[in-house]
Amino acid sequence: MERSSELSWAGKGILQYDVNHQKFELTRYQPSIELAPFIKHYWIVRWDLRDQEPYQQTILSHPNVNMVLEDGQARIFGISRITSTHLLKNKGAVLGVKFTSGGFYPFWNQSLDQLINISIAADKLFGEEILALAASIQQANQVYSKNTETENIRWVIQLENLIKRRLPKRDASGEKVNAIVDRIKNNPHITRVNRLANEIATNPRTLQRLFHRYIGIGPKWVIQRYRLHEAAEQMDQGELLDWANLAQNLGYFDQAHFIKDFKAIVGKSPVGYINTVNSLDH
């Protein structure tokens, strides 16, 4: 079981990662070749904050469904339109699966727009074995482990085997969605749906239907979310940016709309966010 090599995107979506990553350990593992069309990676977060204050981490989600095993429970989380927060306290570990953008639909066979901002019980799709694995992880958190890497790999292999037993047929449309989302992520010049549609030789309405079925949300949202990840990463360096230029790069017509949306999604203005980063860094 190999660790994921997506180092350039290691902290994207984890707000203020550079300042706060010492509070926890995040490890990612690649899926087997058989599962690669469906699963982006497995991830494990561990923390030990005994004798420390609890820590609240804010996440700006990617356009992906995640399955999370934590506190003896297993749930499947759809995309969150705004940030989500996670409280870390005492000692613990969480095991998760990040599905590819088009990879969860074949398991569920329903439009993903029904999962936006909600979660469902994972055992509905993956059986009671997923709850047994979640319970074993919760139990392991209560004892000291000399080799967390070995334990991590054991958990991931168990989870992958559970998923393999319910593996659907490969889905050409889902894999097309994966390729389109990778194109958006890796090409910052894509800031408009029309431009994306032209580049992949389709029309915007077809793209809309495809994204809503397989991801649960439209291509405009996906484009802006990836550009927002890039902006947040720059802000995490404490940089005061050219807001007008940034707004244009994110696909906004003016700076005011960008600031309004940023505050609605993140909970504070861009300048307020940078001030928070600088205060944490000092």
Walkthrough of the structure:
The chain folds into 2 domains: 7-164, no CATH class; 172-281, Arc Repressor Mutant, subunit A, CATH 1.10.10.60. It contains 12 helices and 8 strands. The chain has helices spanning 17-20, 105-108, 123-126, 129-140, 148-164, 172-186, 193-199, 204-214, 219-235, 243-249, 255-266, 270-281; strands at residues 25-29, 39-48, 55-59, 66-70, 73-77, 84-88, 91-99, 119-121. A 6-stranded antiparallel β-sheet has the order 1-2-7-4-5-8. Strands 3-6 form a two-stranded antiparallel sheet. A hairpin with a 2-residue loop joins β4 and β5. α10 crosses α11 (255-266). The protein starts with 16 loop residues before the first helix and ends with a helix.
Kindly list the characteristics that best describe this protein.
282 residues; alpha+beta; six-stranded antiparallel beta sheet; DNA-binding transcription factor activity
